[in-house]
Amino acid sequence: MYIVLEGIDGAGKSTQTELLNNWLMEKGYTTKKIVEPTTSDIGKVIRKELLNPESTNDVNQQRLTLLFAADRLTLKEEILDAEKSKELIIISDRSFYSSICYQNNSSVDKNWIYEVNLHTPRPDLIILLDLDVDEAIIRCDKEEVFENIQFLEKTRKNYLDLLKTEKNIVVVDANDSLEIVQEKIRKVIQEKLGL
Ligand code: TYD
C-alpha cells in the first residue's frame, strides 16, 4: 500500500506523516516513511536548486520537472514491493502530484509532466492537506524558492483542480490544529482503506 500526503509548503505534511506512521505502527502494521525530494544524489541537486531564486523561471522549471521525475524513480522499487504486499504500508511526504502542481507553469505543459512521470508509481490514496496560503506563508520558513504567496496561490489551485480529474484523492482542511488534522487523516484512512 502506498499512501501519500500532498499539499503546499507549510501544510504540515512532514508532521502529519510522522504522526500517521506512529499510529499505523501502533496498530501493528509494518510501515516505511519516505520523503520527496529524496536523499539521493539527484535529490541533493534538487535541494540546491530550491534555494536558487531563479528556479521558478521557465527553463529551470523544465529542468526541475526532469530532476524530480528522476529522483522519484530512485524510490520505485521499494514502492512497488509495498504495493504487492498487504502488510507493508509506505507513507510518503509528496509524490508525482507535487510535480503536477508545482512545475505546472506556462512553459511546462501538464501532459509533458505526466509523460516524463509515466514510469513513476501512482499512490493508492492521496490525502491533500489544504491550507489557506496566508497561513501557509506564516508557517513556512520562506527560504526556498516556491515559498511565496503568489506561487503558492497558483499551486494550491492546481492541487484543488486535481479533484476534478483524479480518483483516490481526499481533501483534509489543514487550517485546524495538528491533533484535529491528524484525527481527520486517520478517519479517511479507516474509511477508504479499512485499516
Ligand atoms: P518540502 O516538502 O517543502 O520539503 P521541506 O519542508 O523539507 O523544504 O519540498 C521541497 C520543495 O520542493 C517544495 O517547495 C515543493 C517542491 N517540489 C516540487 O516543486 N516538485 C516536486 O515534484 C516535489 C516532490 C517537490
Write a structural description.
The protein is an alpha/beta fold and 195 residues long. It has one domain: Rossmann fold. Helices cover 52% and strands 14% of the residues. It has nine helices and five strands, in the order E-H-E-H-H-H-E-H-H-E-H-H-E-H. A five-stranded parallel beta sheet has the order 2-3-1-4-5, with helices on both faces. The mean pLDDT is 95. Thymidine-5'-diphosphate binds next to helix 5.
The first-to-last residue Cα distance is: 11 Å
Second-tier CATH architecture? 3-Layer(aba) Sandwich
CATH class: Alpha Beta
Radius of gyration: 16 Å
Shape: globular
Strand order of the largest sheet: 2-3-1-4-5
Assembly state of the chains shown: single chain
Average per-residue pLDDT, rounded, comes to 95
